[in-house]
């Protein structure tokens, strides 16, 4: 941002008869108030400068302009508005050219579309990704893009939020010329001179007539129906379609007015607040205490121990990140299966036409299968993914301690086990860390980086570097049973079990959870993951369970019948003939009834709202405890965990953001009300009580930790 002492964020200089307007607002040239004002002033200067025949707009640094300054949303808007700036650029009586060498996104692309001509360099990426922030293009994008690239293609660009390469943007009609090189100024100046030599005049996108309007409207009808189905409660996608319709049906200025009104509606929506929270939170999680002091260790060759579900997925992730991987398994048969698990992923891509045999061969050349630990003496980093059994893991780590070179990072993918104890099995606990991937590990974005007591800071930063290479979303977590995600999951899953035993069917609970925005409910997830996994954990914990705590046995009754979910054809649901979508099972309802009767529970009705109040209160209360114990650094780390690893609806920003938006006093009041039934389970987290007493929210902790 500019201050009196700093250079202005928009600078102008004459290069012959061209006024070069360059934007310099690091890191991404976002269109904050100072940039908007600077751009407006620059165009006014150009229009009154008799010696200037043309204007060239460029961005300094990596980006052209990455869009509106998202940090300004939610605050009182400061003039000039971006639509005003864009209209003024388009109205200029000088030839205006945008030279795009990096991100031209959202408002950044809208600035470019207001220019009269556009040239793009190879690293340019163009898009209107506002939808992923709960918004729509609000500075003429919904009106200008359809005029330049056609109605359907423009709507698709806005609804998908995808970025186009320079080449694709030119093919789509958004860009007039492609150029080689990296320097937007030299390229832009050359293009301006070329245009001037041709006698080019200002050419305004607003004046383009949309061709074949009836066909365009028919396409939009189909798109509206499809969007209503696909957007699952999201507000802005349908508004985008309506605005594009306005581009077809209304004169340009009326279309702009409709776009503005819709943009302001989106801006005011809680979905916008949730999605923008998610955007920043995902960028904050990599900011950890260790980052300043400790440089990551070098790594290029890694080992993965275990080639089962997780080991294979982790191997694919590592290979895709350009690393060299040796996979270790117990015996010849297991390693053959491990390799087959890895190849299956690439064969799937080949079958879909998304990978060639040659590309697969090039990747697999970096993969070595082995049954001998001696083959991993030289690796820089090891990720263990063997059975979830502390004794097996300790034995593996003893072996790693014996063979691995000094300074190698030794990581475990355990879901629940005590990593301090695993580290203690080695003579080098400073090198041992948790890397908790999620299944399928080559697809899921979340990586919990679990930090045991004795680990060295540079091992932590190495883990974050690995996450970056693998394009994962890393979250720093402390050691406890289940870390951040699975620990909180266990508690709200328990709340769901109580609701079920007290009267709601698993199907009603799943429906309420889907209605909140999750893709699946908790019982569907159990069936997908396999009921036996949770059953094994419950058995493991049985000895340490508080005998006073309420325990629901319904899932155990189901597992005792061998009903482990999709893989066995039935679980909480029935999956006839390998169906992937389950059907309610009357026999499961009978089991539920029998369990209620056994405990003398008279079932009562639950509305979807009450189900969600309990489900969310349990999640938030445990989240507060996780924070208090320092297992999560900040509330936003919990939010990101649930957004990236547990299907939490992104438009709600995560559980802690949801709590803030709902109001902490209301959440606490719910917990206190539920505590009248079960004071042990619903014990309010002291941190939640403290925040309510002080009139603060979770977000205040995000800020103070930053
Ligand atoms: N406003 C404010 N800050 C932004 C920003 C924006 N539009 N875009 C990125 N930043 C910040 C990030 O928060 C980050 O800050 P930090 O260093 O303090 O954490 C920094 O810029 C760098 O961002 P990334 O870490 O994401 O850098 P990358 O190089 O990985 O990615 C990018 C760059 C592709 C531009 C990516 O940041 C991005 O996708 N940004 C958002 C683009 C976007 O959604 N634009 C539309 C905005 S809405 C709009 O324009 C409305 C209009 O229609 C009226
Ligand atoms: P899995 O049973 O599919 O695979 C385990 C593999 O380890 C098997 O192939 C087995 O042959 C191999 N193995 C066992 N002992 C070994 C040894 N001493 N040396 C070499 N290989 C050995 O199990 P899965 O699901 O892949 O889980 C592995 C780990 O990942 C566990 O700790 C689990 O808790 C964790 N995890 C699992 C998730 C899941 O959704 N499946 C998610 C996140 C973590």
Automatic annotation (TrEMBL):
| Principal location class | other
Q: Which residues form a coiled coil?
A: none
- Superkingdom classification of source: Bacteria
The record's similarity note reads:
Belongs to the enoyl-CoA hydratase/isomerase family.
InterPro entries (alphabetical): 3-OHacyl-CoA_DH_NAD-bd, 3HC_DH_C, 6-PGluconate_DH-like_C_sf, ClpP/crotonase-like_dom_sf, Enoyl-CoA_hyd/isom_CS, Enoyl-CoA_hydra/iso, NAD(P)-bd_dom_sf
Q: Where is the 3-hydroxyacyl-CoA dehydrogenase C-terminal domain?
A: 482-575, 612-696
User: What is catalyzed by this enzyme?
Assistant: a (3S)-3-hydroxyacyl-CoA + NAD(+) = a 3-oxoacyl-CoA + NADH + H(+)
Instruction: Print the keywords alphabetically.
Output: Fatty acid metabolism, Isomerase, Lipid degradation, Lipid metabolism, Lyase, Multifunctional enzyme, NAD, Oxidoreductase, Peroxisome
Q: Does the entry feature the keyword Lipid metabolism, yes or no?
A: yes
Domain 3-hydroxyacyl-CoA dehydrogenase NAD binding positions: 302-477
Q: Name one Pfam family in it.
A: ECH_1
CDD domains xrefs:
crotonase-like
Pathway info: Lipid metabolism; fatty acid beta-oxidation
The protein, known as? 3-hydroxyacyl-CoA dehydrogenase NAD-binding domain-containing protein
Quote the subcellular location field of this record: Peroxisome
Q: Does the keyword Nucleotide-binding apply?
A: no
